[in-house]
Amino acid sequence: MFPQYNAGSRRGPPAMTSAVIDTAKEAQLAVIKNLLWSILRQHDSSHQSVSSWTGFNIATRNNIVVMADTIGYLPSINAPATQMSTVFEILNQAKRIKDMLQLSSIVCVFDQALYAKACEVVWKHPTEFHDVVLRMGAFHTICNLLAIIGKRFSDAGLRDLAVESGIVAEGSINGVLEGKKYNRSLRMHKIIYEALLRTAWKSFQSWLLEHHAENIHQLEDLLKIIKDLHDETSQDMLQTMLEDASCEEILLLFIQFLDHLRKGSGQLASFWMSYVDMMDVVLGLVRASREADWVLHLHYVRCMIPWCFAYDRQNYARYLSIYYGQMSNLPVKHPDTHAYMMQGGLSVQIGSYNPFGQIPVDQATEEPVNKDTQTVGGTKRFSLKPAAITKFYITAEYCSVCLKQLRNMVQHQSSSSIHGDLQATRNKRDEGLIHSTTAHSR
Predict the structure, then answer these.
(1) What is the Cα–Cα distance from 323 to 320, expressed in whole angstroms?
(2) What is the pLDDT of residues 123-136, one digit of tens each?
(3) Distance between CA atoms of 316 and 299, rounded to whole angstroms?
């Protein structure tokens, strides 16, 4: 057993100022890629060959060299995770690992509940833990934002739209809207997001003819390029379109039209454009993790904070503000850690085949580590004998390593090398759901 930690009086964060970070270029490029994907998907929807959002981003990063990260298993602690003593022990073990590896600093990633307690410990012992960098997990942050979207739009028709269009079964809709079913929630919102963008694109063409008739030839040039490159989804194709002058001009005008819908087309259009804006934040956070883009991650964390305040997510509102302030000051406080984040240390590459497959660190803990550590009935209900439970925690890391090696030896890996979004059946199914969503939203 580790020693008990007496938290004593609570300490607040030290005085800090958020450094100004220029994220406009990365954020605009992320939005343009989303819009371009949506436009490409509309070219020949009856014979859809452009994959859904994740598949499209995989296909357009085909020149990226992928190297899987090594995931290790640390000793398990037989104590409640939310106790201050447990958090204090985790930080101490992190320092020991840092010293053993001769690092200048070490990064610890927590979900919000543990991040808050870890911050209190670090603030109370600033000298002892000056070389420990605390990060809030992006996976749990995205889940929280999905719950905010569900709260904002559920009674406005989102619940009925998702069920009646067949995206989500009625029995699962509550968990999806609350962000508890991550994969299904993300898939539902991607489909509705694309359906709204398609509706906006149809209105954009008439708006362009009315307000910017001189740019019609550029729209025709863009449609011709899309027709020529529609069946060639690759990184070179995406780069060709991004560098094309006509494509750039039309996409910027489309962004201007979306801004018109936000501010000058009535309250209903403004309300549902806020859904598009919130989904841009969700997809931006996902993209930042998948591409290990640190600057993009900070941009969308900052965009998320006002929504946390608006929808009474007080814990995330308070600690995301602190998190953003600390992370924006990394170049000054921990330059080595900042350099590591800029080089791709934001997330974890589990597989060796998916160029858009990096996942947040806390999600990597949930998927392989916790999965390999679990037993039938959980980590406690498999036995009522204290000695058996103690033995489990002592040997958990070694059993997990052996289990992982055994799975790698016996499982057939070729089927997992093709992402679901790249399969023709998934394209057909998603296309049908988008048409159903568009029909039910009228």
Answers:
(1) 5
(2) 999 999 999 999 99
(3) 16
